[in-house]
Specification:
0% strand, mainly alpha, 228 residues, single chain, 82% helix, 11 helices
Length: 228
């Protein structure tokens, strides 16, 4: 029989490598030449800016600020002499803006909850019956455990980078991709073949990673796009 311990160890090492590559520690310890050039140029620019500020005539700057304050004071005094009232900031515009933002937030949240709860419900419906299904097919506890570990391992591996792919390619597209992958995973459970069931568990792990990452990412991205 296949040595699944070796496969699990290799997959675990792969997951650690991918996670380290996507983290900021990789750029810290293995900077690319372009990053090094950017840092060098930024340091040179900041040094030049500091030196130019030190050489700038402070007296001229102070004179300009004082003249600006004097002009503002003269305008304010002239307005008071004419009987004008100081400007009053109206809160009606801010209240209308907040009301529109609350309405938009409620719309996005309602749309998110409807889709996400339906997706989560599909996972909850089949979860309690998977073990009983495998047992009814005549598989031993060890074989059933291998199927479950394969699904969890698939979710562990793909969950480390599937969110970044969704941010790059489109979160809405990956939500649709979740529905397709999860449907394929459910279809494989109608077959008694161990290989087909293994493929279904792998697809289920990918779908689980999408379920617990892409939907929330879409909600946050939609709020950011709407300026909320």
């Amino acid at each position: 029989m296949t040595d699944y311990n070796l496969i699990f160890g290799a997959v675990l090492l792969f997951n650690v490598a991918v996670t380290f590559r996507a983290s900021s520690y990789y750029k810290k310890y293995f900077p690319s030449p372009t990053d090094t050039n950017k840092n060098t140029s930024s340091d040179e620019t900041s040094t030049e800016a500091k030196s130019s500020e030190e050489l700038a005539p402070l007296s001229g700057e102070n004179d300009g600020r004082d003249s600006f304050r004097d002009n503002d004071k003269e305008k304010h005094d002239a307005d008071l002499e004419r009987g004008g009232d100081p400007p009053v900031v109206s809160t009606s515009v801010n209240a209308a803006s907040d009301n529109a933002a609350n309405i938009r937030h409620a719309q996005l949240l309602r749309k998110y909850l409807i889709v996400y709860l339906l997706a989560a419900l599909s996972d909850w419906l089949q979860g309690p019956y998977v073990y009983a299904l495998y047992d009814a097919y005549g598989y031993s506890q060890h074989e059933i455990a291998v199927l479950f570990v394969a699904g969890f391992g698939s979710s562990m591996v793909f969950g480390s980078f599937i969110g970044g792919m969704a941010d790059h390619c489109g979160r809405r597209k990956f939500i649709i991709l979740f529905a397709v992958i999860y449907a394929m995973s459910c279809m494989t459970k109608h077959f008694k073949s161990f290989s087909i069931l293994m493929v279904g568990r792998l697809l289920g792990g990918v779908a689980t990673s999408l379920l617990f990452s892409v939907f929330e990412a879409w909600l946050i991205g939609a709020h950011a796009s709407a300026g909320l």
